[in-house]
Amino acid sequence: MRYNPYQLFENDLFENTYSRSDVLKTDIHEKDGYYILNTEVPGFKKENIRIELKEGTLKISASRNIEKNLEGKIIRQERFSGTYSRSFYVGESILPQDIKATFENGELIITLPTEKQKEKQGRQFINIE
Fold first, then answer.
1. What span, in angstroms and rounded, lies between the C-alpha atoms of 116 and 35?
2. pTM value?
3. Number of neighbours of residue 43 by Cβ within 10 angstroms
4. DSSP 8-state secondary structure symbol assigned to residue 124
C-alpha cells in the first residue's frame, strides 16, 4: 500500500488531488454527523466558483481573469488568470441535495453528511448560497 500524505481517513474519504498547493486551501472537520470543508477562495467572485459532484468526487474550481492594463514595465507579477481546482473523494453515497455550500468574505463553506444511503448518481452541480 503506497503512502499518501494527504489521506485524512482510513477509508480514503476526502482523498485529495489538486492543481496547486498554494490555492484553495481547505480545512476539514466533523461536527454533529456532518463534514465541514472550509476553503479559502480570496479574490474570487461567487459566480466564478463551481462545485461539482461526480462518481463520489467533490470538485471545487474557481476561475478569474486579471486585467493586463498595467502601464510601464512589469517588475513582478504574481497574480494568476485561469482556473484553480481541488478534488476530494467523499464517497459515492453522498447526493448533491445533501450538500450545502455558502460563500462569504473569500471563504467557501461546504457541509455534507458523514453517512448516507448509497444511491447511484451522475454528474451534478451544487448551488452556492
1. 12
2. 0.71
3. 13
4. E
- Residue 66 corresponds to which cell in the numbers above? 486579471
Instruction: Report pLDDT digits (tens) over 18-66.
Output: 444 567 899 999 999 899 999 999 889 999 999 999 999 999 999 988 7
* Residue 41 CB neighbour total at 10 angstroms: 22
Which of 75, 65, 79 has its CA nearest to residue 23?
A: 79
Contact in structure between 14 and 26 (CB atoms under 8 Å): no
- Amino acid identity at 70: L
Q: Which of 56, 46, 59, 49 is nearest to 18 (CA)?
A: 59
- The alpha carbon torsion through 47, 86, 88, 50 (nearest 10 deg) reads 10
